[in-house]
Design brief:
By secondary structure, the chain is mainly α. Helices cover 53% and strands 0% of the residues.
């Protein structure tokens, strides 16, 4: 399984929108979309930001599908702390 597929699967399992992840990870929306769709390979630094925004470890991004079943909804309190309001931050 590709890393982008895992990132998307985790994000959906945690009921997070791309906007929420992008806001907390401080990433460009086009860049994040390309990562999830497997069109680009993210750097380790970017993967660390994404993992933190998803509330998982870096190794969870590389987990098999069976291991991903353990991931559940994430406490969205981090999104309130980040100032995410659901609107564009640009």
């Amino acid at each position: 399984m590709k890393i982008g597929e895992n990132i998307k699967r985790i994000r959906i399992a945690k009921k997070l929108s791309q906007k929420e992840v992008i806001s907390v990870a401080n990433l460009d929306s086009a860049q994040y979309s390309c990562i999830e769709n497997g069109k680009t390979d993210p750097t380790v630094t970017t993967l660390e930001k994404i993992a933190k925004s998803l509330g998982v470890s870096l190794s969870d991004l590389f987990a098999s599908t069976d291991e991903l079943k353990e991931i559940n909804s994430y406490d969205k309190s981090i999104y309130g702390e980040s100032g995410f309001t659901g609107s564009s931050q640009r």
